[in-house]
Design brief:
- The protein is α/β, with parallel strands linked by helices.
- 36% of the residues lie in helices and 17% in strands.
- It folds into 2 domains: 155 residues, 3-Layer(aba) Sandwich (Rossmann fold); 81 residues, SIR2/SIRT2 'Small Domain' (2-Layer Sandwich), CATH 3.30.1600.
- Helix 1 crosses helix 10, helix 6 runs parallel beside helix 10 and helix 8 runs parallel beside helix 9.
- The longest helix is centred in the first third of the chain and has 17 residues.
- The chain is elongated, with a radius of gyration of 19 Å.
- It binds 2'-O-acetyl adenosine-5-diphosphoribose (OAD).
């Protein structure tokens, strides 16, 4: 189905969106897939089809082989720099302009929501385009790397990507803001996420408990599917623009 054809957007959802005062959206790597950024678990194209995350996205892996981990992230950073926001990102930025309260919560580290014009993005898992000192945990502006990984200009420790690795805790302020938005909104979208990684995967259920209408936009079934009020099965880059078009014309 081409994006141009009007996808079947339920009339009741359009009315709910028109009347919504507080919206929240949780996105995962599926929203960036159409920008050419690999997802995690899609077997044929997912990042992990080729790499074992335990070998790369953990503090232990960085301790064991900082050069390998750093270079894997440099490869991912290059992918992200060459990627552009897709119509799914742009539709979410449009929704933010249309409703009085909109909170975008993402598990993605690619910064594409911000490049699409979304503001106040809550990055639960950090941002791959930022670098921090692995000891002082403070952001270090990109310096010309003389080594791989480069070292902190302040203390000499290796620099690392400012992302959450397996076994690490999420930024507390981000998680608190995300939970507050989920439990107080009246319409919650879960877009392009397999819903397998906690605590992000609990946010749509917090929204349900808070009385929100929950919409899943995803290619495949997830643990949320059976609980969602609406399931729009398709590509985010097609479904979200169709939803915006059906609601605001
Ligand atoms: P996954 O790869 O687990 O899930 C991507 C989901 O997006 C799948 O359910 C796909 O069906 C769906 N999908 C793929 N292309 C899509 C498209 N064009 N439109 C809509 N849906 C599409 O990625 P995440 O759920 O984001 O965490 O993974 C969550 C976390 O797991 C990541 O943030 C990462 C990983 O551990 C950390 O690295 C801490």
């Amino acid at each position: 189905m081409s994006g141009a054809e009007a996808l079947p957007i339920p009339r009741a959802l359009v009315e709910t969106l028109r009347g919504a005062r507080a919206l929240a959206a949780l996105t995962g790597s599926g929203v960036s897939a159409e920008s050419g950024v690999p997802t995690f678990r899609d077997a044929q194209t997912g990042l992990w089809a080729r790499y074992d995350p335990a070998d790369l996205a953990t503090p232990e892996a960085f301790e064991r082989d900082p050069k390998l981990v750093w270079e894997w992230y440099e490869w991912r950073r290059k992918l992200v720099r060459e990627a552009a926001p897709n119509p799914g990102h742009l539709a979410l930025a449009e929704l933010e302009r249309r409703v009085s309260r909109f909170t975008l919560i993402t598990q993605n580290v690619d910064g594409l929501h911000q490049r699409a014009g979304s503001g106040g993005v809550i990055e639960l898992h950090g941002n791959i385009t930022h670098t921090k000192c692995s000891v002082e945990d403070v952001i270090v502006e990109d310096s010309a790397p003389e080594s791989s990984p480069p070292v902190c200009p302040n203390c000499g420790a290796p620099l690392r990507p400012d992302v959450v690795w397996f076994g690490e805790t999420l930024p507390a302020h981000a998680l608190r803001a995300a939970s507050e938005a989920a439990s107080s909104c009246d319409l919650f979208f879960s877009v392009g996420t397999s819903g397998l990684v906690q605590p992000a995967a609990s946010l749509p259920f917090e929204a349900l408990r808070g009385g929100a209408t929950v919409v899943e936009v995803n290619l495949d079934e997830t643990p949320l599917t059976r609980s969602a009020d609406y399931v729009l099965r398709g590509r985010a880059g097609e479904v979200l623009p169709a939803l915006v078009e059906a609601t605001y014309g």
